[in-house]
Amino acid sequence: MRSRRSRFGELIQIDGSYHHWFEDRADKCCLLVFIDDATNRITTARFCKHETTNDYLSALEEHMNAYGKPRSLYSDKHGIFRVNNKKNITGKEITGFGSVLKDLDIELICANSPQAKGKVERANGVLQDRLIKEMRLGNISSMEEGNLFLKEYLQKHNEKFSKDPLCPEDAHRPLKEDLTEIFAHKEQRKLSKDLIFQYGGDLYQINPQIASFGMKHAIVTVVNKKGSMKVLYKGNNLSYKKYCQAETQAQVVDRKSIDSWLNKTERKVSRKHPWR
């Protein structure tokens, strides 16, 4: 057993809980929960189809707009938070979510087991009991209605279950950064000798007229902000064009994302396809 942190905002435990939150009134979905370690206060909760980087960033933005920047986040080892590739021995590779936290100067800590982040796990169990009953009485039947209802419900929940921190000082820091720029999805790609890179299942080629010989096999940064994509090399914006659709190998899906993966739209195979 470890003692809870002393200040509000010093450590925020985060997790996603897949459950039939709306019983038989809607499909199974995920509830993202942010809970403060010092006070047991749920600072943010939101329904989503499944755990994604964008959903966690939206929840983090909601938390920061209300309280400021927390000192650290405590999560599991989901691929959103940690690069679990065995080749990442040094730990230098980070995910898009980790990159955002680095820009915001928020430390990310990954628990080795669900029991290590017991506060958020226990909170999920309480919500699966009390929140479901409340939404049943209110005939809440969709994620949109649920997210609106959560704002009212969390106030009552925190009044009942939250505690006073051991230290009255608030550990949150004021938010001064431009979140639109920081939340832009950034990934690094290596150019081929033909100045081609793969992103999002497609192949793109850098305009050879503006590229230099030294750019072959260079590392570029792909910035995806609200559907618009730009490619940066040493801070300079490069022009590019779509080359073709890439062939991809089998996807690796963890246990927390398998439901959303299996529920995706199936690809229809033509009757004249050789498999038939």
Q: What is this entry, summarized?
A:
By secondary structure, this protein is of the alpha+beta class. The protein is 26% helix and 25% strand. The model has no long low-confidence stretch (mean pLDDT 86).
Walk me through the structure.
With 276 residues, this protein is an alpha+beta fold. It folds into 2 domains: 12-161, Ribonuclease H-like superfamily/Ribonuclease H (Nucleotidyltransferase, domain 5), CATH 3.30.420; 184-245, no CATH class. The chain contains 6 helices and 12 strands. The strands form 3 sheets. The protein has a 5-stranded mixed beta sheet with strand order 3-2-1-4-5, sandwiched between helices. The longest helix has 20 residues, at 118-137. The relative contact order is 0.14. The model has no long low-confidence stretch (mean pLDDT 86).
Give the number of DSSP strands.
Answer: 12
Q: List the strand order in the largest sheet.
A: 3-2-1-4-5
Order of helices and strands: EEEHEHEHHHEEEEEEEH
Helix/strand/pairing class, anyone?
A: alpha+beta
Domains counted in the coordinates: how many?
Answer: 2
Helix content: 25-40%
* Corresponding CATH superfamily of the largest domain: Ribonuclease H-like superfamily/Ribonuclease H
Low-confidence stretches: none
Beta percentage is: 15-25%
Predict the CATH topology of the largest domain.
Nucleotidyltransferase, domain 5
Number of helices: 6
Envelope shape? globular
CATH architecture of the largest domain, by name, is: 2-Layer Sandwich
Mean of residue pLDDT values: 86
The N- and C-terminal alpha carbons lie at a distance of 58 Å
CATH class of the largest domain: Alpha Beta
